[in-house]
Amino acid sequence: SIHEFGNLIADSGLMKRSSSKSQDELTKTEVRQAFSAAQHDSASDPDEKAAVDAGTRSSHLTQMTYCEFLEAVARIGAAKWEGELTLFKKIERAINAVTALLEHPDNAKFV
After folding, report:
1. What pTM did the predictor assign?
2. Percentage of residues in the chain with pLDDT exceeding 90?
């Protein structure tokens, strides 16, 4: 969900902290935009279609598929580092920040 995605990005250290003045810090709005932009207009994944058809999920836009998640993280990287880094490096940094959560036992809720 958008809330869980926002928490993940915040926990990874990619989102702006209230005391931060860095231009590379993301805002909540940018995180919501990355989530929304990665959502596909229709349920395309078979499991996603089945969940919508069965009524277990009211809309395919409330949750992300794995592909949509990867796209959203890539969008986060592109939005966060607007400088001279290559797009590949921006995406790599965002993925590394998110996956670093897996290495910390305190963040086991994301495993």
Report:
1. 0.73
2. 46
